[in-house]
Write a structure and sequence with these properties.
This protein has 488 residues and is of the alpha+beta class. 41% of the residues lie in helices and 19% in strands. The chain has 3 domains: 291 residues, no CATH class; 111 residues, no CATH class; 66 residues, Arc Repressor Mutant, subunit A (Orthogonal Bundle), CATH 1.10.10. Helix 4 links the parallel strand 12 and strand 13. It is elongated. The structure holds adenosine-5'-diphosphate, zinc ion and magnesium ion.
């Protein structure tokens, strides 16, 4: 059987809309608050009443330029807003203000690191600013409700080159976009809540073919997982059609996550003839070098740079650095732990496993993780200065999650200080060996395996508080002594 995934090659380009984290809308002073009652954050401007004039929100320009700089775009010193005309009930103006022929950012790129270890460059065609439309709510009865609060919410649209060749690459690209916008603090990156939205343009062609095939556009994917699944599905669907001798119809499709398939959008909804023209009410946007440089000075350390610095500065494996810098919050948390301890690798292990597991399970932002980085740092300090064993530290950690109490306080209160007193440990060793003659015989006859059994018993007897290094050392001394005696 021919492997269809080798006979054909997929071509994918993504259009990503990111909702910008400004307090007010793009052309008026209305609030962008997500939780307000429907139709309360509105004014004549965003309702599109006749005769009103839009006023550009400076922050929207600055945020978009930040994104352009972070993705190595050219920042056009002059860009222009255009009206994209279409009728839709949740767009009272009858047109959307967007950028068309002269966008603010062009010709950028980002890099993604693939599972197979290769790195791939994906081009960014353009990034432009536009306003959002309102929201139609269809699931409340036999009618449709309209909430126009979202009209005029600022969006940044990032259009990629058709450079991706698999669902994996698209997934990684989108993940990278999220990582960058959240590092920049210009979008919360939440796909489930619609602050980050993605439309996927997909075509397939015979491997080796230079010309692109006819593309379809898949919309309505509201999670990273769904983007990956929808693209995989659509690639398969197109290959099946071509294999049966059919032709791909250029159309817009909606991903149906429940049915795990795409459905065609009603053709009336996608009859596009937008009659773009420059918006006569808005001046061209001028970003001179001085302003551009001022914005560039505000660029934070980006994920890629931070990852490399973590490797250099803290001698971490690339794997650790990659995970720790996956979000700005996690990287900040890690570096705050280091205010309390210089044990970079232990700190990394704790953050990557113990912290991240709960953050992921509970789906909370890292800044809401109940154990402060200071207290985690102190806990690591207590292990390293031998006050407690690593085992006790793992036992204390859930306590800390409940209360964020100072670990030293918990150790004191529960009397968990590690026992390193050889006399005390020796006594317990004697007792355990005395009570387990059979296992002692086994050891003497060469079965080293029982060592683990002895350590376990001793630790149990000492409630996990014995210093494991000293236990091992004294136990070996004692057992070897017995061996010598038995032999001699
Ligand atoms: P349209 O005019 O249909 O909006 P554009 O040329 O503006 O198409 O491209 C929209 C998106 O589709 C871009 O992300 C682009 O990279 C991607 N794209 C263009 N042609 C193809 C193709 N043949 N297959 C897959 N993606 C494509
Ligand atoms: Zn308004
Ligand atoms: Mg287009």
């Amino acid at each position: 059987m021919i492997n269809m995934n080798q006979k054909y090659e997929a071509v994918i380009g993504l259009e990503v809309h990111a909702q910008l984290l400004t307090d007010t809308k793009i052309f008026c002073g209305c609030s962008t608050n997500f939780n307000s009652a429907p139709n309360t954050n509105v004014c004549p401007v965003c309702l599109g009443h006749p005769g009103v004039l839009p006023v550009m929100n400076k922050k929207v320009i600055e945020y978009t330029v930040l994104m352009g700089l972070a993705t190595e775009c050219i920042i056009n010193s002059r860009s222009v807003f255009a009206r994209k005309n279409y009728f839709y009930p949740d767009l009272p103006k009858g047109y959307q203000i967007s950028q068309y022929e002269e966008p603010i950012c062009e010709h950028g790129k980002i890099f993604v690191d693939k599972k197979d270890g290769t790195r791939k460059e994906i081009g960014i065609t353009r990034i432009h600013m536009e306003e959002d439309a309102g929201k139609s709510i269809h699931d409340q009865g036999d009618y449709t409700l309209i909430d126009v609060n979202r009209c005029g919410t600022p969006l940044m649209e990032i259009v990629s080159e058709p450079d991706m060749r698999s669902a994996e690459e698209a997934y990684l690209y989108l993940t990278k976009i999220k990582q960058i916008v959240t590092y920049l603090g210009i979008c919360d990156g939440n796909m489930e809540e619609g602050s980050l939205r993605c439309d996927a343009n997909i075509s397939v062609r015979l491997t080796g073919e230079k010309k692109f095939g006819t593309k379809t556009e898949v919309k309505n994917m509201n999670s990273f997982r769904n983007v990956e699944r929808a693209i995989e599905y659509e690639i398969e669907r197109q290959i099946d059609i071509l294999e049966e001798g059919g032709k791909i119809v250029q159309q817009t499709l909606l991903w149906n996550a429940d049915k795990n398939m795409v459905m065609p959008m009603r053709s009336k909804e996608e009859a596009h003839d937008y009659r773009y023209f420059p918006d006569p009410d808005l001046m061209p946007v001028i970003v001179d070098d001085e302003w551009k440089n001022e914005i560039a000075n505000r660029l934070p350390e980006l994920p890629e740079t931070r990852k490399n610095r973590f490797v250099e500065m803290y001698s971490l494996p690339l794997y650790d650095a990659e995970i720790l810098t996956s979000s700005r919050g996690l990287a900040d948390y890690y570096e705050s732990v280091l205010n309390e301890t210089n044990d970079y690798k232990s700190a990394s292990n704790w953050v990557m496993t113990d912290v991240l597991k709960i953050v992921n399970d509970e789906k909370i932002p890292v800044r809401e993780f109940p154990v402060s980085p200071e207290n985690l740092g102190k806990l690591i300090g207590l292990i390293n200065n031998k006050t407690i064993s690593g085992k006790i530290a793992k036992d204390i950690f859930p306590e800390m999650i409940k209360s964020n109490a100072d670990p030293a306080g918990i150790v004191k209160e529960k009397n968990l200080v590690q026992i390193s007193d050889s006399g005390e440990i020796e006594n317990v060793i004697e007792k355990i060996l005395g009570a387990n003659n059979k296992q002692v015989e086994e050891f003497l006859s060469g079965k080293d395996k029982v060592l683990g059994f002895f350590v376990g018993q001793i630790m149990k007897e000492m409630k996990g508080k014995a210093n494991p290094g000293i236990v091992n050392e004294l136990l070996m001394k004692k057992l070897n002594g017995l061996k010598d005696n038995a032999g001699g």
